[in-house]
Queue: 2 jobs
Job 1
Amino acid sequence: IDPKIWRACAGASVQIPALFSRVYYFPQGHAEHCCPSSSVISSAVASPIPCVVSSISLLADPITDEVFAHLSLHPVAQDQFQFQFPFPPSSRFGEERDDEKVVTFAKVLTASDANNGGGFSVPRYCADSVFPPLDFQVDPPVQKLFITDVHGVVWDFRHIYRGTPRRHLLTTGWSKFVNNKKLICGDSVVFMRKSVHEMFIGVRRAPSSNKGGGGGSYYGDEYYAG
Amino acid sequence: IDPKIWRACAGASVQIPALFSRVYYFPQGHAEHCCPSSSVISSAVASPIPCVVSSISLLADPITDEVFAHLSLHPVAQDQFQFQFPFPPSSRFGEERDDEKVVTFAKVLTASDANNGGGFSVPRYCADSVFPPLDFQVDPPVQKLFITDVHGVVWDFRHIYRGTPRRHLLTTGWSKFVNNKKLICGDSVVFMRKSVHEMFIGVRRAPSSNKGGGGGSYYGDEYYAG
DNA sequence: TTGTCGGCCGATCGCCGACAA
DNA sequence: TTGTCGGCGATCGGCCGACAA
């Protein structure tokens, strides 16, 4: 994935350490993250281990589209830790020179946005700063947008400026996207424009308060809460 | 899974060895089955290994509904192989006493059967011998069938006898089943009746000549052959 | 007996402006 | 400016008998 697109999808609050930078690996934290139920951790490995970030991969979940980073940590001796790797972590990974700025806009989906059969209300700022400009000579102003997701799949949306009062909307193509990505109210979409004609779309899932998996049973194609 | 239902789904041509029977394990065949591309097999383990079937599990794929058996093989010494396990493999696994015969009918789906929006043409013999009898006093004769799949999920179908000339059809509920199981023309469905009111439905996939996975690319929700 | 087709009816999808927050 | 709603037109699913293999 393009590092700029990855960063835009992840959001500004997400930071990852620089390549070859010095970090501490906390086995206990890792274990609890992987398996929150079993709290029995061997105290022999409970102390933090000095490491160096030996590789970084920016990835996206093939199903949920959520972006994540895969870091390889190489353990180093404690006494060498402070002096062996004097790489200045000046530039964080994924923060490239802004010779080609990526314009970004994220919106939390409303009920109307996520509703099946509905469209997507495009905030004014998003339409003005991220989307290509419409031709306001024709009425109503309409264009097709071809937008690429994190997997390189291209989606096309009908972008129209209509209604009283006028507002920007995504209509045709939107519900197909919502269904395919299984987006629900509270999730976010991220629109990005890299160059004049390169647009990308990303997804951020809402913090799962209690997603599925609970009791209940399937009866044919219908789901019955138990 | 009920062994009788498992056998009916698998079909008469499928046979599995008896529990505790003596078999030979062929590592090379196993390896080639798992990974057909790499043909480099260590000759040290290329000879068949005498084993005893120590356990048998009748299972069904949670996605495709295809039934399969899981056999555990326990290796035994060559000299003990012939005498150590004199269990007579008189009754094959899954071939129980027919104190309660399972009536079965399988049909290969036609284009019309698998077509979206269409129904299912029920062969006369299936309706007569497997389905519960219709009440021919009313016109048209109709009933709802509640049929359980290999996972215990119950599906209901509308069974009607109509048209000129008259024929048995499954209408409402059928296309939902086809879509959920992703059945296509050439696949088979198996109808089973264990007791008077217990009906089951199974699936046999068509021998995959060249199923998906090949070249091509996704463009939005559409698939374009490459 | 049963596979395929066109007709047709009803349900759903999804685009629309009207409001109001 | 933009979230939600009811209206309504187009599309599609899916039930039907007609016909022929």
Note: Chain B touches chain A through eleven residues (CB under 8 Å).
Job 2
Amino acid sequence: MDEGLVSVDKFSGGSQAYFLTHLHQDHTRGLGAAGGWRHGPLYCSPVTARLLPTRFPGIDASVLRPLASGASASLSLSSPSTGRLISVVVTAIPALHCPGSLMYLFRGDLGCMLCTGDFRWELGCERARAAKKALLDALAGDTVDVLYLDNTYCHPSISFPPRPVVAEQMVYIIRAHPDHEVIIGVDTLGKEDLLIHISRALQTKIWVWPQRLQTIHLLGIDDKQEIFTTHTSLTRIRAVPRYSLTIESLDALNTVCPTIGIMPSGLPWLWKNTKGKTKSCGKSPVKSIRCKGLNEEGAIEMDYDPLSPPKLFEKDSYALPYSDHACFAELEDFMQTVRPSTVIGIVSTSLRYVNPRQHFSHLCGDNVCSDKTPVKSKGRDNAILTPKKRKNDSKTPKGSKVRISSSSLYRSRVTMKRRQCCGAKIREPEEPISVD
DNA sequence: GCGATCAGCT
DNA sequence: CACAGCTGATCGC
């Protein structure tokens, strides 16, 4: 296969065109290289293009090639080995992972390849049905030779409800704590729909940290500032960086006033109650919930008890299966729809890499072939058609002198700089707990 | 001294 | 466990 042509979510150079699926940090490594991005044209969604300069100030707007959902672009590449022209048409498909997230379908002289990036595939929701139609339209009957699949939750034991259902559960939980402050853990991008739903249902504004509000406004959400605020005095509900929602931070907040924490996440081990039993994928839920108007049947039955959701910690804090990645049934439908010749998972860890072929070989065209998927190192396998020189173990050279002097001063400055650029870690926002 | 990158952690 | 992402240490300019 010809190499050095196109890269998806990989920005180490050596390609002729670059594609960014969405603006989460684990997909943008290499984009912030010194002196700005200059390796080649960078394709992404218009939303991502709008947000990019805030994350990567050095980026030159002239290299950006915004591609709207459903739109196509023609690429004229040249083969690094023969110099011959290679024509490729790329089409952007909504990925429904976070704002601005896309899949990319490549068709042309190299065959047909689909890179999902991270995606969700809730076919009970209109948005996903539209995405499915866009994908089928773009495919136009072609067979996908290689599918690069978001295999984050590629295991039959993993299922979660559509996000609107979980959003309603969240409203339910907050309503059940009318006198509590509420802390919700979120990332730098994503789950805006969830927060908007909560705000509207409870007629309450939601506090976010300043950089998060900037992101929201760049997304074109809440221009009239009716939903989000950076003033804690206006609301009891706060969305804080996910990593800052800890036992310690909740304890600290509870010394001031009663506070619950809510972690919307697909991570299965979070949905355990205090006795350590997994609830939402277990056998007999205590109760189920009906949410009306979410699909044609008018209701979705839930295998989840909204009255006593799993505890995040041993406190009034909850984990909800609100996932921005497809669950197993959704992956199965996706595989059924695409029926690729080959599938490769884009997510892997050193401990557990779930090869999608393990579960979906019957949905692949080449299931007679032996498994040629390379053994994965920790990280994501995002590159396509690029020189596959992945360095697996870059050992840190030892032997340099240990410098101790002024290091603490240096540390704090680094931290301050990062906070200015990326947004601060918020532990006890604007709460006068102990000011010293 | 500074930015980039890695290891470690949640 | 680690979705995505913070933190501190270290490297190289």
Note: Residues 24-27, 34, 118, 152-153, 187-190, 241-244, 265-269, 323-325, 347, 349, 351-352, 396-397, 400, 403, 407, 411, 414-415, 418, 422, 425 of chain A lie near DNA strand C (CB under 10 Å from a C1').
